[in-house]
Specification:
With 349 residues, the protein is mainly alpha-helical. It contains 13 helices and no strands. The radius of gyration is 21 Å and the shape is globular. The protein starts with a helix and ends with a helix.
Length: 349
């Protein structure tokens, strides 16, 4: 027994202080973001009771303090997530975003009285197990002393090739597929968001490192590379917001969320592995274990989303029609599969 404990300590004693900081920030981010959905929904319901509901085009929620508390909570969560990338590798931070789904589901069960199906509980458990697996086997953060070093990593042939593929694929999707298939194929909008998102996270990480170094006394704001990464982040985030809003407006949120999470997280991990060479500092066993943890999180995420509408159905079968927006938010329910039918689209306008 003592030998086993000693062996475990030898395996995991190398978790750096930066990784621990990144882990704490990522967990804090998930808590704040998950809680913000519940607070904002409470604010929307309270505002809808005394004015025009948001789903009917009203903006009375802007006068509701509870909604603003939820918005501020979400901003705090996003800031914590941003900071996490400055301390820990993306392969550790990004998958932990699934925990916000768990927190949101649990708080909705407790506060909003939205029943959590038994398979939803299993989905939460899978996400927790997968997250723990990734945390225990995540690679150490690369030691970086200047934003110039990050720029050099970003301009190596392997990552330039990846970035060129991503940009080409995005332009093909935007100019060739969006006009004809954007309203009927969910993968078009989500593909754009996920591809661009992988580049935005790499740039966010570069800016986070620059700010961390600047606060420690090594000013990185004097380098043009810092501002170049900033411009990339602004461009990518605006593109993501645009096409993610289109996806959410066109397709069922319960379908968009898990697919986007899977694609975005997978491509972000791939980009990080290419740019920061995360796997070069790990053994094959650690890499396989991380991937198993990631697949476990994906399974839990899909299960949680798939069953979140089953709680109200009781012992009945999974309903054929899944509402795009809950009636509590003032939207009409509509059945939207992976491919949205043109007739349904025209009816909504």
């Amino acid at each position: 027994m003592a030998t086993a404990v000693a062996s475990w300590r030898d395996s995991y004693k190398g978790m750096s202080s930066d990784n621990i900081k990144g882990l704490v920030l990522a967990l804090s981010s998930s808590f704040f973001i998950g809680a913000s959905f519940i607070v904002k929904k409470k604010g929307l319901k309270k505002a809808g009771a005394s004015g025009v509901r948001a789903g009917s085009g009203g903006y009375s929620y802007l006068y509701e303090p509870l909604w603003w508390i939820g918005m501020i909570t979400m901003i705090v969560g996003e800031i914590a997530n941003f900071a996490a990338y400055a301390f820990a590798p993306a392969i550790l931070v990004t998958p932990l975003g699934a925990l916000s789904i768990i927190i949101s589901a649990v708080l909705a069960h407790i506060i909003l009285r939205e029943r959590l199906h038994i398979f939803g509980v299993l989905g939460c458990a899978l996400c927790v197990v997968g997250s723990i697996t990734i945390v225990l086997h995540a690679p150490q953060e690369r030691e970086i002393e200047s934003v110039i070093e990050v720029w050099n990593l970003a301009t190596e042939p392997a990552f330039l090739f990846y970035a060129a593929l991503v940009i080409t694929a995005v332009f093909v999707l935007i100019f060739h597929f969006v006009p004809d298939y954007g309203q009927t194929h969910i993968m078009v909008y989500i593909g754009i968001c996920s591809l661009v998102g992988s580049l935005s996270v790499m740039s966010v990480k570069a800016i986070g490192i620059a700010l961390k170094l600047t606060l420690s006394g090594m000013n990185q704001l004097i380098y043009p590379q810092t501002w170049a990464f900033t411009m990339v982040v602004i461009t990518c985030v605006l593109t993501q917001m645009n096409y993610l809003n289109k996806a959410l407006d066109t397709f069922n949120t319960a379908v968009v969320s898990p697919i986007y999470y899977v694609m975005f997280t997978s491509l972000t991990i791939l980009a990080s592995v290419i740019m920061f060479k995360d796997w070069d500092r790990q053994s094959p066993t650690q890499i396989v274990t991380e991937m198993c943890g990631f697949v476990t999180i994906l399974s839990g995420t899909f299960l949680l989303h798939k069953t979140k509408d089953m709680a109200d159905a009781g012992s009945a079968a999974l309903p054929v029609r899944i509402p795009k927006h809950s009636e509590e938010d003032g939207y009409e329910g509509e059945g939207i599969p992976l491919k949205r039918q043109d007739g349904m689209r025209s009816a909504s306008h």
